[in-house]
Design goal:
Elements: E1 5-16, E2 19-30, E3 34-38, H1 45-53, E4 60-65, E5 68-69, H2 75-78, E6 80-83, H3 95-107, H4 124-141, H5 157-169, E7 175-179, H6 187-204, E8 208-212, H7 215-221, E9 224-229, E10 232-237, H8 239-244, H9 249-254, E11 261-263, E12 279-283, E13 289-290, E14 296-305, E15 309-316, E16 321-327, E17 338-342, E18 349-352
Parallel strand pairs: 3-8, 3-9, 6-7, 7-8
Antiparallel strand pairs: 1-2, 1-4, 4-5, 9-10, 11-12, 12-18, 13-17, 14-15, 14-17, 15-16
Helix pairs in contact: 3-4, 3-5
Amino acid sequence: MTSQAVLELRDVTRRFGASTVLDAVNVTVRDGSFTALLGASGCGKSTTLRIMAGLDRPTEGEVLLSGENVADKTAYERNIAMVFQSYALYPHLTVFQNIALPLTMRHLNAFSRVPGLGRLAPGSATARELITKKVTETADILSLADLLHRKPNSLSGGQKQRVALGRALVRDPVMFLLDEPLSNLDARLRVKMRSELVSLHKRTDRPFVYVTHDQVEAMAMADQIIVMIKGKVAQAGSPRDLYDRPADKEVAAFIGTNSINFFEPDDGLGQMNGYPVNALIGIRPEHLAPAAGGHFGARLETAEFLGSETVLGLRTERGKEILAIAPGDYPVPAPGSEVRLGVSPERLHLFDRQSGKRLNAEHAR
C-alpha cells in the first residue's frame, strides 16, 4: 500500500526579480521515505528545501503539509527540522546546551532561562527534568553521551554533525530537511556518516529530505531521488529507475559513477549500427567492456587502475572519446593498441537526438 504524502509542492515557482529559480516544481514526500534532491550547483535544490522548511516563500504554487496549505506559515509553525551544511552550533554552549536549545525555548519562559534564579520559577524543575531526559535519550542514539559537557570547538567534524542532528531530533519534528550536511567532511568520514544517517532515518521513521550534488551519495541513501536541472524536476523515481530508465539524456549523463558515452548511429559502431537516424545511443562505461570479437574497436589512450576495476579511456576510429570499464585484473595493452568492445543490446539507452527524451524500446530497431 502506498504511504501517505506528508509534504507536497504543487506547481511551485520562485522568482527573484526577473530570474526564475524554480519553474513549476512538483514534489511529493511520503511518510517514512528518504528523498534526495539531486542536482548541480544552481539548479534550485536548496531553494526548494528552504520553501519546504518555511524559510522562503513561493512566488506561485502550494506547499501542502499533511494536506494543509502552509505556504504562508513559518518554519516553527510547521515543526519541520532543518540541518544546515555549516552545523550552526553555538560555540559558547556545551553539546548538552546546543541539543537542548529547542526544548529550552519551548518549555522555559524568559525568567526560567536566567542562570541560577530561573531554577526558582514555578514549574522550572519539572521542565528541566523533561529536557534532561530528552537530551540524554537523543545523545545515546547519536553516541554523544560522553561529549555532552564539551563545546563545539573541541569536536571533530563528524561529532559536530551529530550534535546538529541531535538538536533537530530532540524537537520530534514531522520531518527532517538536510542541506548538504556531509559536504564539510573528508571522504572516509562521509561514507561512515552516510550509514549513520540511514540508520537514524530507520529509527525515527520520519521523512528525510536530503539535498546533495553527489549522485553516489543520493544513490546510496535515498529510496526516492528527485533530479533537478535548471530549476525544474527532470525526473523523480527510485535510484534503480533513474539508472536503468533515465527520462532523457541529461538525467542519463548525471546519474552514474562514470559519465555515460553517447553515440550517433553513424559513429562507426560496427555491429551496433542500424538504429534510427533520430536516435542518440547511450552506453554506460560499466556496460562497455573489452571482449574478443566485440561489436567495435577503439584505440586505448589511458588506463586508470582502481583496484577492483580499471577505467579505460579510448578513442574510436571517428575520433570520439569514450570510457569503458575492465576488471581490475585486466591485462592492459600498450597505449595506441586497439581494444575490441562489447555491450549487451538490453544495456543500450536510446534518446531522441533533437529533444533528448528517451525513446521507447520498440524504436530500437
